[in-house]
Amino acid sequence: MKSLQNHFLIAMPSLEDTFFERSVVYICEHDNKGAMGLIINRPIGMKVNDLLEQIAELEAEEGKPTPKITTTDAEVLMGGPVTPERGFVLHTPQSCWSNSQQVSDSLMLTTSRDVLSAIGTDKSPQKYLIALGYAGWSKDQLEQELADNTWLTIPANEHLLFDVKTDELWQEATRTLGFDIWQISSQAGHA
C-alpha cells in the first residue's frame, strides 16, 4: 500500500461509541513501521490563548521575556490517545524551530516549545493548529483497519485543515468524495 502521509482519514459511521467516532485524522507519517496522525476535529475545551498564557507564565517564572500575544479564538485539539500530555503544532512551513519535521510541501509538524512561544506574535506560522497527544498505528494495523472499512481516505488540503470549523469537519471532509456521510450505513455488509 502506498503511504497515506499528508492524507485525511475519515471515520466511518461504524466507529460509533469509540474514541475515534466522527473523527478526521491528518496522517503525519506512514511507512512500513506504522502510522502517526493527529485528530483535527476534537477540541479539548481550551482556547489557544489560554494555553499561550500558561506558557507565558512559565517562561516569566524562568526569567524569559514574554512577548505580546495576539488574541486568537482557535481551540486546542485532542490529537489522539497516545501521550496526551505532549503537544504538537501542525503549521505552514518555517525552518526556525528546534524540533520540526516536513510532512508535505506546505506543512510541518513541530514538537518543541519554541514554536508555542511564537504563536500569537509576529513570528508565528501563518496557519497552525495545536494538538495534545496523537493517534498511532503499529505495523500493518492501519492497513488492516482500511481493509475492514473503518476509514475513508482523501488527500489532505489546507482548506479542510485550517478553515473548516471542527464541528463541521467530519461531514465536510466526506462531501469532498461526492456524498454526505449520512448516506453510508453504519452496518458492515458481507456478500
What can you tell me about this protein's structure?
The chain is of the alpha+beta class and 191 residues long. Helices cover 21% and strands 33% of the residues. The protein is built from five helices and ten strands; from the N terminus they run E-E-E-E-H-E-E-E-E-H-E-H-E-H-H. The protein has helices at 48-61, 113-118, 141-147, 158-163, 169-175; strands spanning 7-11, 24-31, 34-39, 43-47, 75-78, 82-91, 100-104, 107-110, 128-138, 151-155. Strands 1, 2, 3, 4, 5, 6, 7, 8, 9 and 10 form a ten-stranded mixed β-sheet that branches. Strand 7 (100-104) and strand 8 form a beta hairpin. The chain is globular.
Structural topology:
Blueprint: E1 7-11, E2 24-31, E3 34-39, E4 43-47, H1 48-61, E5 75-78, E6 82-91, E7 100-104, E8 107-110, H2 113-118, E9 128-138, H3 141-147, E10 151-155, H4 158-163, H5 169-175
Provide the descriptors you would attach to this structure in a database record:
single chain; 191 residues; alpha+beta; 5 helices; 10 strands
Q: What is the structural class?
A: alpha+beta
What is the average of the pLDDT values?
A: 88
Structure annotation, total helices: 5
Low-confidence stretches: none
Compute the number of strand runs. Answer: 10
Distance between the termini: 24 Å
Helical residues, percent: 10-25%
Describe the biggest sheet? 10 strands, mixed
Strand coverage percent: 25-35%
Overall shape: globular
How many whole angstroms does the radius of gyration measure?
A: 17 Å
Order of helices and strands: EEEEHEEEEHEHEHH
